[in-house]
Write a structure and sequence with these properties.
By secondary structure, the protein is an all-alpha fold. The chain has two helices and no strands. The protein has one domain. The longest helix has 20 residues. About 0% of the residues are buried. This is HTH tetR-type domain-containing protein.
């Protein structure tokens, strides 16, 4: 059984980063004013 943040696999870590970053941006800018590009820029992820 895995527990703790360090035991998360890479996909889970990226998912957590996206969620936490999104929540922060939604709080600052509002849901309707936050774009996917805003989230991608803030997380430094590329597609």
């Amino acid at each position: 059984m895995q527990n703790g943040r360090n035991s998360m696999n890479k996909e889970d870590q990226i998912r957590d980063l996206i969620i936490q970053t999104s929540l922060s941006l939604f709080n600052k800018q509002g849901y309707n004013q936050t774009s996917i590009q805003d989230i991608m820029t803030a997380t430094a992820l590329r597609y």
